[in-house]
Design a protein that fits this description.
With 140 residues, the chain is an all-alpha fold. The protein has one domain. Helix content is 78%, strand content 0%.
Length: 140
Amino acid sequence: MDDSSRRRRPNAVQWLWYCLGGRLPAHLSGWVLYDTTSRHWAMRQVVRSTMVISPLILVLLLAVPGPFWIRALSAFGGLLMSLLYSLGFLTETAEHRLVKAGYPAGTGAEVRQRRAVEQRTTATQQRREKMFRRLDNRRR
């Protein structure tokens, strides 16, 4: 994926629709791939889940009668359950978003795995170079 397709982002309304599970226009499919496979893809999913439940939390805190501490604990419990559910289906949700954006099933896992292998390879190469530099310095 080139940088220009990654830079093209959805506007606020599109992003909220995307948070709710809606499909983005085809020209944003590169951003969907980035969103679901970037280094912080799991944190991005947590933020989206929080955005979905936040209106319900506000209604619970502000409109439901009763002592505030009960409303706050209920809101906190709802938030925790939402996050638990979201994290439980993290990879499935990401894959579903990619399929809706036009990518074949399994694309997200494949891209994330390839990046992890590249990162491990780079880290191994850096360790080896560092070790050989030390050995070179000892020989001199």
